[in-house]
Specification:
The chain has 235 residues and is an alpha+beta fold. The chain has six helices and eleven strands. This is GNAT family N-acetyltransferase.
Length: 235
């Protein structure tokens, strides 16, 4: 499993993911990169971007388009319109040993979600608002769900994948199915899958989402650093 010495890749999770595992889902221009439309709105520029890098990103996305710069500490030129600023944390899984994949999924009702489940996934996201999720977001990695009476009531999936790491994201449960431990079962099952292939789980959470933060800490996640999420509109 990846060690903490390799955690430097998490300082630029979007850029590292676009350069590596998700290169096939990237579009590029000069020093800028972004996911293709429909997958994610995340964008990346070099660690110390100059005016040319920001110009590349603006041209890549087009005028008046949304640029989610995620946790990038650099800010674009003043003619970029701020859309949002949100304080958050980056957490890494510090659990001991290798979780038992068969035990994590046995009798839990956890199922893998494929492309045929996308309409249901989008509906669940619309009702629960776990964060950005688009028609092709499922292409970023494995998505797991729990069904009740045939209906999808809970979900979790993989998002950014810097070298040696896999981000857990889209954790959501329908209002009528909360309080039954679905999120815990799903996260544990996904942790087991990630660890089984030699990666280490990490995730991001909004600072204000104290309930989710407490849940992740109970599941073995520890804060690596505080981050600020930002989004802008191109000039």
């Amino acid at each position: 499993m990846t060690g903490l010495s390799d955690a430097v890749a998490l300082d630029d999770p979007v850029g590292e993911s676009l350069r590596g595992h998700h290169a096939h889902l990237a579009r590029r221009l000069g020093g800028a990169a972004a996911f293709v439309p429909g997958v994610a709105t995340f964008s990346a520029v070099p660690a110390e971007p100059d005016a040319e890098a920001w110009a590349d990103l603006a041209k890549l996305l087009g005028p008046g388009e949304f640029a989610d710069t995620f946790s990038c500490p650099a800010t674009p030129p003043s003619d970029w319109e701020p859309v949002f600023v949100m304080e958050g944390r980056q957490l890494i899984w510090a659990g001991d040993g290798d979780p038992d994949l068969s035990r994590a999924t046995s009798g839990s009702g956890v199922v893998e979600l494929g492309v045929e489940s996308v309409p249901e996934m989008l509906d669940l996201v619309e009702r629960t608002r776990p964060g950005p999720f688009w028609p092709r977001t499922h292409e970023l990695g494995t998505y797991l769900g729990i069904r009740h009476g045939g209906a999808l009531v809970a979900m979790v999936g993989e998002r950014l994948k810097p070298p040696g790491w896999t981000e857990i994201s889209a954790v959501c449960t329908a209002p009528e199915a909360r309080g039954q431990g679905h999120a815990v079962r799903l996260i544990r099952a996904l942790i087991a899958r990630v660890v089984a292939r030699g990666d280490r789980p990490f995730l991001h959470v909004a600072e204000a989402n104290t309930g989710a933060l407490a849940l992740y800490e109970r599941l073995g996640f520890e804060t690596r650093k505080h981050v600020t999420f930002r989004g802008f509109r191109t000039p």
